Amino acid sequence: MDAFYASVEQRDDPSLRGKPVVVAWRGARSVVCAASYEARTFGVRSAMPAIRAERLCPDAVFVPPDFARYKAVSRQIREIFARHTDLIEPLSLDEAYLDVTANRTGLPSATATAEAIRAAIRAETNLTASAGVAPNKFLAKIASDFRKPDGLFVVRPHEVLEFLTPLPANRLPGVGKVMESKLAALGIATVGELRAFPAGEMEERFGRWGRRLHELSLGIDEHPVTPDRPTLQVSAEDTFEHDLRLDELEPHIRRLAEKAWAAHQREAQTGRVARTVVLKLKTADFHTLTRSLTPSSRPSSVVELADIACALRSRVERPADSRYRLVGVGLAGFVDADSYAAQRDLFDQ
Fold first, then answer.
1. Is 184 domain-assigned?
2. Predicted local distance difference test score (pLDDT) of residue 133
């Protein structure tokens, strides 16, 4: 979807159309959830501190996020997808992979299917979507950004190498700033240059990841579209108005544990339970710390979850006067509830 949250706000409030809309709460602690294309021309981007967005675009209209509304629109869009294929892998509320090799509507090509989906989204939601059509997931993901907003870009099998060759190496999935600098030290700035670098040397320097990067430079990606991917973690977090010390976090940890436990209970209804407790902290200078524990028996109540999360503070090896701007509580390590119960029975015998 194109600038999804901001576009929903502009659709539902005509006075916002054509204006630089920033979906975020105002204040030094807030971050931008989404920015309209009018705001993006000023350099405003998602995940940017809201106070910086306000400096970049003083005339921006700040709108607090309404996730319940965005989720409802997302469900409406997923229903459109489901008319065409069962193979839908959501990435977020506003993005998904679809495998339309065998589509339900009998349309003659993936391109025709993408056009039909985009037309239905426009007609039924009064919003626009951009699509990438390609032989595999990572190529389709890159292509989806090439004609934004409201565009379609197609990479046919015989065009893959030509499409990839001039792209910056950081367009490949997994190539962040650190990896980009390592490749630059080898004289590699583009995908074509990465492809020309000996595959054996890439693997020698970076292990299996080096081999994987070389495969991506050739357009090779065998990962299938996987519907209904299992939940890996549920969590809740909060950013404070004022930085707090570690010994001041307990009431916040217990409050967030209630939210995380409620999400866990919803997941448990599908037959999966979590074994690992995760505590997340972000320091005043924006360093993220995580501490986790997998107890011999999984947490069985919100009180037990909160107790473990609070205890994990003792594993934070920082000066006592250190301050933190964010805390989060999560549950991870999901397993099938029946198999977990069977294992417990076995060990208890």
1. yes
2. 98
